[in-house]
Amino acid sequence: MATGAELVALAKTRIGEKYVNIRVPKDNANWHGPWDCAEFVSWLVFQKTKRLYGCIDNESNPAVAEAYSGSWVRDARSGVLTSSSEDDAVNTPGVILIRRPPAPGKMGHVAVSDGLGKTVEAAGTGLGVRPGKVRGRLWDFVVKVPELQYASTGHVAAEVTLPFMLILEDPNTASPLVRKVQRALKNAGFDPGKIDGEYGPHTVAAVEAFQMSSKLVSDGVVGPATAKKLGVDWPNPPG
């Protein structure tokens, strides 16, 4: 049985390769990019297990199967993948971390833990495949792949309080801070629609476009990194 550590070892051989929102043939062991986040993780898992996960159709031909962060969410919710935790991801190589898309058809994010408190991920346009952090980020699901064997490294990482974030919610989040974000987006050349102080789909679309142009993970979530690029003062985390 393949291991989570072997999954990470393979992932690290792709560090530095380009990011493009493109479909990847999961059965091509010699593929060296470009990648997007969901395609990268689905390719890694298929290479080690010969099974598709996180694809719109997990039973389709792996050469043409389309991976999507929303499909990773589906597999996590349905129990096809084994539920885990952020604490586990910190010290266990090969755990999958998933951020749900803000809306149907939008992009979420998927990463692989390295077991030493970091991730390997196809991070975004201009960023490519690179290491990231497990702690201090929004993850909606943390899961393991049933066909992989996992073992802890014993690594210990302090808990990190999540920073304040603006995400698409129902009903829309409304606040003066959202209005500041909207104005900053408008000034940067990214139209958020009506500047109404509501964090709705038009604002999310502008955020995603701004993030993509600014070498940030393009997920439509405004946190400290995106706010800093926009020049918006950001509140400290609670507590």
Automatic annotation (TrEMBL):
Cite the Peptidoglycan binding-like domain residue spans from the record: 176-230
Gene3D superfamilies named in the record:
PGBD-like superfamily/PGBD (1.10.101.10)
Q: Which domain of life is it from?
A: Bacteria
Signal peptide limits: none
This protein is called: Putative peptidoglycan binding protein
> Which source organism does the UniProt entry give?
Pseudorhodoferax soli
